[in-house]
């Protein structure tokens, strides 16, 4: 009996017992669909995270004092340090600004709104990426003149003034107990991202010249950290090490480990590792159901061998060899698992699309995952079908013909 004939006989046996075959496939279907769904959602989540980091700036880095080490005022950063970094690494660094942040309370006629107040300059838009709607962004003149100006989020403008066109309006803010009135020179909108859509709408921050915020808070021109954005082609790890060595040399604390750098790339790598491990673990747990499905296939093949014992005896009596019987039942086992794998793949992909739409992330899956899942289901058929098939092939034709 050749392979084609074995397939025809196997399909005939499967379709003659449709309900039994479907129930046998159920374990395979559940296992494959679970694995496909989990892996597809894991890939979707990882893709979303990658896109968000790209949108917010893959070249972002955060340079700061190493808080785990003892430091003095001599180790703090200054505007001169920033100027030196700008001139030394002008080709690699797109923007660099002291990281100055305060919590404040924005006052309106009827309410008070907690807000984040960020100090920036004309290049800060390359770090904190926003889309300007009306007016302009901060300028070099605003920074040098320590002007009392600001840009605010469109949602904040609607919340406080009831409209988005608020250029020239005064924004009353209390920062550290000190009230100040800022003139609104522009309104912005954060680029919409999938993560923001999942978290809902939020009111944005207020951006002011960092020199103005420094004057309000009495910073004194010393900084514990600064933010920077680097070009896409820049070797970020190499550049950050050069920056650390240069700052250490300027402050005379070489080798004392007084500074540290956090990069978006490093954070992304860490998150992707965690996401990958979680997906792998959950997928492995879901794959246990494949083992249960495989046992079901083995069980039904034993039943099939018992039911068809006389048929096996007749085939052997008219010249069928052991390998022909082995092939027939092995093919039947693989077909049952393979059909279950195909159905499970379709169900898994459908579930991943449904779940993705519910949690509002774009669905994503790789064709390699689908192929591996289907091959794995076929492999289950071979593994759990070979023992019953081998038992059938060893039946004595005389004993088989006598079987009732």
TrEMBL record:
Domain ABC3 transporter permease C-terminal: start-end pairs: 284-397
On the tree of life, the source organism's domain of life is Bacteria
Gene Ontology molecular function terms on file? transmembrane transporter activity
Q: What transmembrane ranges does the database entry give?
A: 21-42, 280-305, 326-359, 365-387
Looking up Pfam families in the UniProt record yields: FtsX, MacB_PCD
MacB-like periplasmic core domain mapped to chain residues: 21-244
A GO cellular component annotated for this chain's UniProt record is: plasma membrane
The UniProt entry, under InterPro entries, shows: ABC3_permease_C, MacB_PCD, Macrolide_Exporter_MacB
Kindly list the places in or outside the cell where this protein is found, as annotated in its UniProt entry. Answer: Cell membrane
Keyword Transmembrane assigned to the entry: answer is yes
Q: How does it sit in the membrane?
A: Multi-pass membrane protein
Keyword entries, A-Z: Cell membrane, Membrane, Transmembrane, Transmembrane helix
The record's family statement is: Belongs to the ABC-4 integral membrane protein family.
PANTHER family of this UniProt entry?
ABC TRANSPORTER PERMEASE YTRF, MEMBRANE COMPONENT OF TRANSPORTER-RELATED
**Protein name in the entry:** ABC transporter permease
């Amino acid at each position: 009996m050749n392979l084609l004939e074995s397939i025809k006989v196997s399909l005939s046996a499967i379709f003659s017992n449709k309900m039994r075959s479907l129930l046998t496939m159920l374990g395979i279907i559940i296992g494959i669909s679970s694995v496909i769904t989990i892996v597809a959602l894991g890939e979707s989540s990882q893709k979303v995270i990658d896109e968000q980091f790209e949108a917010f700036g893959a070249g972002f880095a955060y340079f700061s004092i190493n808080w785990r080490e003892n430091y003095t005022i001599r180790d703090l950063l200054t505007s001169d340090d920033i100027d030196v970094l700008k001139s030394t690494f002008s080709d690699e660094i797109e923007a660099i600004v002291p990281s100055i942040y305060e919590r404040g309370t924005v006052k309106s006629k009827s309410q008070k709104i907690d807000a984040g107040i960020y100090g920036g300059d004309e290049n800060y838009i390359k770090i904190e990426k926003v889309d300007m709607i009306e007016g302009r962004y901060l300028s070099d003149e605003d920074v040098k003149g320590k002007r009392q100006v600001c840009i605010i989020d469109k949602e904040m403008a609607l919340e406080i003034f009831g409209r988005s066109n608020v250029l020239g309006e005064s924004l009353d803010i209390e920062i550290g107990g000190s009230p100040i009135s800022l003139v609104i020179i522009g309104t912005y909108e954060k680029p919409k991202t999938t993560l923001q859509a999942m978290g809902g709408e939020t009111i944005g921050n207020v951006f002011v010249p960092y020199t103005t915020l420094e004057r309000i808070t009495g910073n004194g021109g010393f900084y514990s950290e600064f933010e920077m954005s680097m070009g896409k082609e820049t070797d970020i790890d190499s550049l950050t090490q050069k920056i650390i060595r240069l700052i250490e040399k300027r402050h005379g604390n070489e080798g004392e480990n007084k500074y540290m750098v956090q990069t978006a790339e490093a954070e992304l790598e860490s998150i992707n590792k965690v996401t990958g491990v979680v997906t792998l673990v959950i997928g492995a747990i879901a794959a246990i159901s494949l083992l249960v499905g495989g046992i079901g296939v083995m069980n039904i093949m034993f039943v099939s061998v018992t039911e068809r014992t006389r048929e096996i005896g007749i085939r052997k009596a008219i010249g069928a060899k052991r390998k022909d019987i082995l092939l027939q039942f092995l093919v039947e086992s693989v077909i049952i698992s393979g059909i279950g794998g195909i159905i499970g793949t379709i169900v898994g992909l459908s579930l991943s699309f449904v779940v993705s739409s519910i949690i509002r992330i774009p669905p994503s899956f790789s064709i390699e995952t689908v192929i591996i899942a289907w091959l794995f289901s076929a492999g289950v058929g071979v593994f759990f079908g070979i023992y019953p098939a081998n038992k059938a092939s060893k039946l004595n034709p005389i004993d088989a013909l006598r079987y009732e």
